[in-house]
Amino acid sequence: MRSLRTRLALTLVLLVTLTVAAIGIGVYAFVDASLRDRLVADARQQADFNLSVLLPAIQPQPADRAAFGASGLPEQFRLRGDADVIADFGDGEPWVPARLPRALDEVPPALRTIVGRGELGYAWQPMGGEPSLVVGARPAAGPSLYFVFPARAVEDALGQLRLGLLAGGLVAILLALVTSGLIARGILRPVTAGAAAARRIADGDLDARVPTGGTEEMARWAREFNRMADSLQSTVTRLEAAQGQNRRFVADVTHELRTPLTALVAEASVLEASIDTLPPDGRRAAQLLVADARRMRTLVDDLLEISRFDAAVEQPAVQAIDLGRLVTAVVAARHPEATVVLPSQPVVVDSDPRRLERILGNLLDNARAHAPGARVEVSLTPVTGGAVIVVADRGPGVAPDALAHLFDRFWKADPSRTGGTEPGGSSGLGLAIASEHAALLGGSLRARNRPGGGLIVALSVPVTQRLPAGHAADTRAADPRGASPPASRAGS
Amino acid sequence: MDARILLVEDDPSIREITAIGLRAAGFDVSSAADGPTALERWRQEQPDLVLLDVMLPRLDGLEVLRAIRRESTTPVVMLTARADTIDVVVGLESGADDYVRKPFELPELVARVRAALRRHAPEADGDGAPRRMRLGPVEIDPGGRSVARDGAPVELTRTEFDLLVELARHPGQVVDRDRLLDRVWGYDYLGDSRLVDVAIARLRAKIEADPAEPRLVLTVRGVGYKAARDA
Q1: Dihedral (C-alpha) A289, A292, A298, A303: value to the nearest 10 degrees?
Q2: Per-residue pLDDT for chain B (231 aa), expressed as one digit of tens each?
Q3: Left (φ > 0), alpha (ψ -120 to 50) or beta: where does A109 sit?
Q4: How far apart are CA B155 and CA B167, in angstroms?
Q5: 3-state secondary structure string across chain A
Q6: Which residues in A lie closer than 8 A to residue B193 (C-beta atoms)?
Q7: Rounded-to-integer distance, Cα A65 and Cα B168, Å
Q8: Is B226 within 8 Å of chain A by CB?
Q9: How far apart are CA A284 and CA A280, in angstroms?
Q10: Structure confidence by residue, pLDDT tens digits, B88-132
Q11: Cβ-count burial of A122 within 10 angstroms (0-12 exposed, 13-18 middle, 19+ buried)?
Q12: How many CA atoms lie within 13 A of A71 on its CB side?
């Protein structure tokens, strides 16, 4: 499919070509006709004069070639009209000019027929290689006479005209070829501007408008386009303001909850220390209080964390990270029973370690909560442009249609389970938070079911900057053990 | 133990329960509800450690922290509502030794306070005499907990001092952030690696000739830090 601009440009060139051709052909035909008409008129006049004045002056009329040559007529015709003469006596021995020995044979038969009927006729005919006008006539008594007028001047003028017209036409077409693209672009400029504005709006720049100048039709179109953009912008602004208020409210409420919650959590933890001294009824109440305070703490922490994403104030703090060390450390802290599989070479990325710890920690918490007691395997694999950290459990997995909602806020695999009363119960936000962190780091979280049962969650982390080789060598030489084993860390 | 702690916290409930919890853990606690009172108490009582809420009425917690740091190297642990605000980094840069996120449980807080107070007892080397160390122009006396650069004494907080000792004990060997968090801050699980990075920056500012071009404490990208072997 050719572009509108190309088609417009080609049409322009075609129009110019046709116009130039028509004008050229017209001019040529007109000049050609008028030049030849004038020569013919002059020639006929001269022929008439020759036949009616010069020829009758010779008596008796010459009857053969010798007599004609002796009569001096050829010289007179040449002097009066610059015309050579051919005299045909019908005896196969015509008088011809010295420069045209085979002249009679060159006279077109059609002209000879006309002349044979006693009429005046003419023909454009090269004679002896020279362009010529031949006018023929036969007086009442005597030979058929053909006057040969040179037409070289006319042919030369016409030739020059042809060259001139051809050259001018070519120049005009070339010019059209060169400028038609620009002209087409000029014509299409409002359309192009409209397309650019529409694309900017689609990309979220609601301030984009099109200029309203130009032709009336385009200006009207531009005004309508801008009116549509205005309306879209005001709607979006209103919606965003409402959503922003909503989110601010959630953030404010959560923040205000934090001070009493801090007191509550501290109080519960002090109460817990002396829980054994309470009477049985009070003891159970205290246990529930402690557990609920913890649940509330998790929920408020998570709500605050996710409301910061909504407020779009989160900025990653990037530094070089040895992912193998990070994975080992997080697993040791959050799920020490999980097995860790690392590549033989260190994998170093530029990323935010605290966010990576948060993501991986939440994935491990999720595995522990939804696949209790099941084996969990964490693996790190370098890939082109980044690394993939996979947390795979051998638990029950999730229903296939639930996979798409796994990272939704407050989504729970089993609707009858509402966070649970077990200590450290999840808020339902852990995976949503992990997903937000991953997106902020330029990576992604994906979940799928494991063929043999269980859930696999893969975190892709991009390498934002490659580590210079010298540093990597430095790392390995200085600490050949790789990540320090958790046992030695816990012991010290 | 009977270490004396100054607790600075404006919310009365949090202040009271925290004081109860700390006393139950064996500390001697006095408290203040605002910045000026906090500074007054600190000067009178010279506590072993300050627990400081960064959001305080009248005088900002960070101002209190800077005022304390101008006069002393007393360990300061911040109490902060959020771990990822600029307050935490500014607090650490201003010389706080550690921070605890709100809400906290008392055992958590007590562990952080104990770790900050512990900040290694002098290292004994076999026969019990702490070994003096040297890192380029810097001389370290673990026994006297003193540091001098070209003979002139350098004032380091306990955290900075322990960090320097931890690195200087094995010149040329990389120590990763987790190990530093464990050895210096007492985090036996994931800690905030910014604690290490900010403390390293503070340490460099005090002992390096040009902190922007460190020659004594070197960064090993992606891993941690090491003391220069031939400084």
Answers
A1: -120
A2: 479 999 999 999 999 999 999 999 999 999 999 999 999 999 999 999 999 998 777 778 889 999 999 998 899 999 988 766 677 888 899 999 999 988 899 999 999 999 998 864 444 444 455 678 888 899 998 888 889 999 899 999 988 999 999 999 889 999 988 889 988 998 877 788 889 999 999 999 999 999 888 999 999 887 889 999 876
A3: alpha
A4: 18
A5: CCCHHHHHHHHHHHHHHHHHHHHHHHHHHHHHHHHHHHHHHHHHHHHHHHHHHHCCCCCCCCCCHHHHHHCCHHHHHHHHHCCEEEEECCCCCCECCCCCCCHHHHCCHHHHHHHHCCCCEEEECCECCECEEEEEECCCCCCEEEEEEECHHHHHHHHHHHHHHHHHHHHHHHHHHHHHHHHHHHHHHHHHHHHHHHHHHHCCCCCCCCCCCCCHHHHHHHHHHHHHHHHHHHHHHHHHHHHHHHHHHHHHHHHHHHHHHHHHHHHHHHHHHCHHHCCHHHHHHHHHHHHHHHHHHHHHHHHHHHHHHHCCCCCCCCEEEEHHHHHHHHHHHHCCCCEEECCCCCCEEEECHHHHHHHHHHHHHHHHHHCCCCCEEEEEEEECCEEEEEEEECCCCCCHHHHHHCCCCCCCCCCCCCCCCCCCCCCCCHHHHHHHHHHHCCCEEEEEECCCCCEEEEEEEECCCCCCHHHHHHHHHHCCCCCCCHHHHHHC
A6: 353-354
A7: 137
A8: yes
A9: 6
A10: 888 899 999 999 988 899 999 999 999 998 864 444 444 455 678
A11: buried
A12: 21
Pairing of strands B4-8, B49-53: parallel
Q: Which of A 410-469 lie inside 8 A of B, CB atoms?
A: 467
Q: How many CB atoms lie within 10 A of CB B101?
A: 17
| Res A467: pLDDT | 39
From start to end of B89-145, where are the E strands?
Answer: 98-101, 133-135, 138-141
Q: Tokens 């003028």, residue?
A: A157
Nearest of B175, B189, B170, B171 to residue A479 by alpha carbon: B175
A84 alpha-carbon distance from chain centroid: 73
Residues B61, B91: Cα–Cα separation, whole Å: 9
Q: B143 to chain A nearest CA, in Å?
A: 21
Rounded Cα distance, A483 and A340, in Å: 11
φ/ψ of A352, rounded to 5, equals -105, 110
Chain A residues touching residue B86 (CB < 8 angstroms) = none
Angle between helices A430-440 and A353-370 (to 10 degrees): 150
Best CA proximity match to A433, nearest among A394, A400, A406: A406
What is the secondary structure of B18-46 as a DSSP string?
HHHHHHHTT-EEEEESSHHHHHHHHHHH-
Closest to A471 (Cβ–Cβ): which among B81, B172, B221? Answer: B221
Of the partner residues B20, B182, B223, the one whose CB lies closest to the CB of residue A479: B223
- Interfacial B residues in 102-131 facing A (CB < 8 Å): 102-109
Q: What is the mean pLDDT of each run of 10 residues along chain A (492 residues)?
A: 78 89 92 90 86 78 80 79 81 81 83 84 86 85 83 89 91 88 81 85 84 80 87 89 84 82 92 90 91 89 84 81 90 90 90 91 90 90 91 88 86 54 64 92 90 90 57 36 37 34
Contacts of B143 (CB under 8 A, 6+ apart): B122, B129, B130, B132
Distance of CA A93 to the CA centre of its chain: 82
B11–A264 CB contact, under 8 Å: no
Note the Cα A72 to chain centre separation in Å. 86
